[in-house]
Design a protein that fits this description.
The complex is a heterodimer of chains A (about 550) and B (about 200).
Chain A (H helix, E strand, L loop, with lengths): L6 H5 L21 H4 L4 H30 L9 H36 L8 H22 L15 H4 L4 H28 L12 H32 L13 H35 L6 H14 L15 H29 L8 H24 L1 H7 L3 H31 L5 H27 L14 H27 L44 H12 L1
Helix pairs in contact in A: 3-4, 3-5, 3-16, 4-7, 4-8, 4-9, 4-14, 5-7, 7-8, 8-9, 8-10, 9-10, 9-11, 9-12, 9-14, 10-11, 11-12, 12-14, 12-15, 14-15, 15-16
Chain B lengths: L6 H33 L15 H30 L6 E8 L2 E5 L5 E3 L1 E5 L4 E7 L4 E5 L4 E5 L5 E5 L5 E7 L12 E6 L1 H9 L5
The chains are: A mainly alpha (about 550), B alpha+beta (about 200).
């Protein structure tokens, strides 16, 4: 059916009654229940979207408070104890409730089945259970606030401090345990869906790159998460029973905890970044109207990152007292992971070469992603090298580095994905001008916020410091300003998107000219995703059809 | 004693090498990216080429970065070995981290808190442990950092080449007093040091 590009003239009134918003699944429930008991992957995706946005903005607020406290030396408005809980809460929410689930649970849930031409995930009920586990984890984390005070350990829960502190570490690590279960089940669901439910005409080398990145991610979610789950339970066992696994006085080893923790938590950063890379690999070709450069290399590098990224955890531990041999091995392996990431950056930039590039908010955010993520990756080389790592380990340099990769990377990919797929998910196009202003404020504020932290780190300012030496005043003051611009920019972008919900649906089925299957169905899609059998391209990024179609339209 | 290479020089060379390369790479890549976006904008270049890859180019950009990565690894590892190989004849000081201060014990059992006095030109080895949570001894001026862990001894060494005062900080989060665990390394002349270390403790 070649009608999909004739946009709203044809779909206009027809699809309003047909989209998944109007057809609950299972059909017997109406109103709020049609959401809470739904097994439709698109509805579950939207429930994730709004719950994740809630946590995201809460954690942004906490991050803003941290920077406000640090803008001036000495105590500004919170005590050291509250400050320690603030950065712990900021970290725990951002890691476990925002950045790990954000791209897979929202956009993966919505677009993975559509991109492979099917009607749902393999286990729809398990998918709903994952959302409930996610919510349960969030609520348990909040409960710990009202008991003995939120943990003051940092999101890493390092022993023996996490075992001896009087704050409510047990509840918080249990929350992380429940969230880990949710993440594992999502991973399991995605792997099964990709293997079992792909369109019969779609081979492995015809899968869109976003889905490929989710596939690589899902394996890490499934295999690495159990390690941290067990480790967090061990912390609880230690707190209640005191077996002494991590206590040298009883023959235990505190560094063992760090190994177990990072064995998950380093691969977890690839859980966070891989889907973001997948999003960028979708957006760049669409707006350049040109095939992605090196499809197979990008697929291979996703899998290589998933495998090699699981073998570098102890590069967080060069200063921990582990053996020099371990430092040698983990430093070398860390440099190995740098190569597949570099391949992706080269491929994205080469895709732009001789394209027909149309600037739009998703592309603007993607270009910012490439720049910011490259800074994050390159400063990662400083941290991967053993000698230089020692100086900047546990300083603000590390804080800036991982915010460049996780926020400048995954965070920007999240915003890019929102702007790219928003018309598809809600059937409404947003205001470009406000989106550009928001994105520019965010990027400018971002640089102002995190670049001073690199310098502070090189000058030796440790992280997690409530107070600091006078020499670090200027940098902290500037960073506070940057934070304000960032928060305004993000707020503007999200409000701009939410405002469209009050307007009637106006987005065509294919507003950008994409080649993947989600653009062959109305916006928003119907309950079973497709009205007619989707056309599977031999090569998923073959834009010759799109180019032809648009050249015809301009002639008309 | 023959000349000792100060690891600070090695570490700084490694910093310059990695950061310098990164700047060049980032600058070039960003420039190319912006140039492509401007040069091939749709209003000026409406018909895109259909290029799906280039085996030679892709091989080159795997092999070249691989060599650069190895070079960076080697530079980092060499400076790290500089930090780990303690020269002979070092002054050994025992360091105990506790919540929230640092204790130092000299070979003659002289004890100080949050302050070390060392003679200029003599390598100093710190043998570090903790009595409770994990702490970390960080002296930015000497590029050294190592965790203080209960039950094991870790070490770090430095070569004070100039007289002066250099601060140290705790860099492993250990609780409310974490940011207060700072102190100072006083590098003094050998004569002053001898006089100071021979003094009886005041307490």
């Amino acid at each position: 059916m070649p009608v999909f590009h004739m946009d709203n003239r044809l779909w206009g009134s027809m699809d309003i009654t047909q989209s998944f918003f109007e057809t609950p699944a299972p059909a017997r429930y109406k109103g709020i229940l049609s959401w809470l008991i739904t097994t439709d992957h698109k509805r579950i995706s939207l429930m994730y979207l709004f719950s994740i946005l809630f946590w995201f903005f809460l954690a942004i607020l906490l991050g803003g408070l941290i920077r406000l406290e640090l803008m001036f030396p000495g105590q500004t408005f919170v005590s050291a104890q509250v400050y320690n809980s603030l950065f712990t809460l900021h970290g725990v929410i951002m890691i476990f409730l925002f950045i790990i689930p954000a791209l897979p649970a929202i956009f993966g849930n919505f677009f993975l089945p559509i991109q492979i031409g099917t009607d749902d995930v393999f286990f729809p009920k398990l998918n709903l259970l994952s959302w409930y586990l996610y919510m349960a984890g969030g609520i348990i984390a909040i409960l710990s606030l009202f008991s003995d005070g939120f943990p003051d350990t940092g999101w890493t829960f390092y022993v023996p401090f996490s075992i001896s502190t009087h704050t409510n570490v047990s509840t918080a690590v249990f929350a992380a345990f429940v969230l880990g279960l949710s993440s594992m089940l999502t991973g399991l669901n995605f792997i099964t869906t990709i293997h079992r439910m792909r369109h019969s005409l779609m081979g492995w080398m015809q899968i869109p790159l976003f889905t490929w990145s989710l596939y690589a991610t899902a394996w890490v979610q499934l295999l690495a998460t159990p390690v941290v789950s067990i480790t967090l339970l061990l912390v609880m066992v230690e707190r209640y029973v005191g077996v002494g696994l991590f206590d040298p006085a009883k023959g235990g080893d505190p560094i063992l905890y760090q190994h177990l923790f990072w064995m998950y938590s380093h691969p977890a950063v690839y859980i966070m970044i891989l889907p973001g890379m997948g999003v960028i690999s979708e957006i760049i070709p669409v707006f350049a109207r040109k095939s992605i450069f090196g499809y197979k290399a990008i697929v291979a590098s996703s899998m290589a990152i998933a495998v090699a990224g699981s073998l570098v955890w102890a590069h967080h531990m060069y200063a921990s007292g582990m053996s020099d041999t371990a430092v040698f091995v983990f430093s070398l392996l860390t440099f190995v992971v740098a190569i597949p990431s570099a391949i992706k950056v080269f491929s994205w930039v080469s895709t732009l070469y001789k394209g027909a590039i149309q600037m739009a908010p998703p592309l603007f955010l993607s270009l910012c992603f490439i720049y910011l993520f490259s800074v994050g990756g390159l400063t990662g080389l400083v941290l991967g090298a053993a000698g230089t790592n020692i100086h900047v380990h546990d300083t603000h340099f590390v804080v800036a580095h991982f915010h460049f990769t996780m926020f400048g990377g995954t965070g920007f990919a999240f915003f890019a994905a929102l702007h790219y797929w928003w018309p598809k998910m809600f059937g409404r196009m947003y205001n470009f001008k406000r989106a550009y202003i928001g994105a520019a404020l965010l990027t400018g504020g971002f640089m102002f916020h995190y670049v001073p932290m690199f310098i502070l780190g090189l000058q030796g300012m440790p992280r997690r410091y409530f107070d600091y030496l006078p020499r670090y005043e200027t940098g902290n003051f500037l960073a506070g300003f940057g934070a304000a611009f960032m928060i305004i920019g993000m707020f503007l972008m999200i409000m701009n998107l939410l405002f469209t919900l009050r307007k009637p649906r106006n987005a065509s089925s294919d507003p950008w000219g994409g080649t993947t299957l989600e653009w062959q169905t109305p916006s928003p899609p119907p309950l079973h995703n497709f009205i007619s059998e989707p056309e599977i391209l031999k090569y998923p990024y073959d834009f010759t059809g799109v180019v032809e179609r648009y050249s015809k339209e301009t002639k008309e | 004693m023959n000349t000792i290479i100060n690891p600070v020089t090695l570490v700084d060379q490694s910093f310059y090498f990695i950061i310098g390369f990164s700047f060049i790479f980032l600058f070039a890549m960003t420039l190319v990216m912006i140039w492509f976006v401007v040069r091939y904008r749709r209003s000026r270049h409406p018909v895109p080429a259909d290029i799906r890859g280039n085996l030679l180019l892709e091989t080159v950009w795997i092999i070249v970065p691989a060599f650069i990565a190895i070079a960076m690894f080697i530079s980092g590892w060499q400076s790290y070995t500089g930090l780990r190989n303690v020269p002979q004849g070092a002054l050994e000081i025992e360091v105990i981290g506790q919540s929230f201060s640092w204790l130092f014990y000299y070979p003659n059992d002289k004890e100080t808190e949050n302050e070390i006095v060392v003679p200029v030109g003599t390598p100093v080895k710190l043998n570090i442990t903790s009595t409770d949570a994990i702490h970390s001894m960080y002296i930015p001026a000497f590029r050294i950092k190592v965790d203080a862990v209960k039950g094991i001894y870790t070490y770090a060494w430095f070569l004070p080449e100039k007289e002066g005062e250099f601060f140290f900080q705790c860099t492993e989060f250990c609780g409310t007093g974490h940011a207060d665990m700072t102190g100072v390394v006083k590098v003094v002349s050998k004569e002053k040091y001898e006089a100071w270390v021979a003094q009886e403790d005041e307490w």
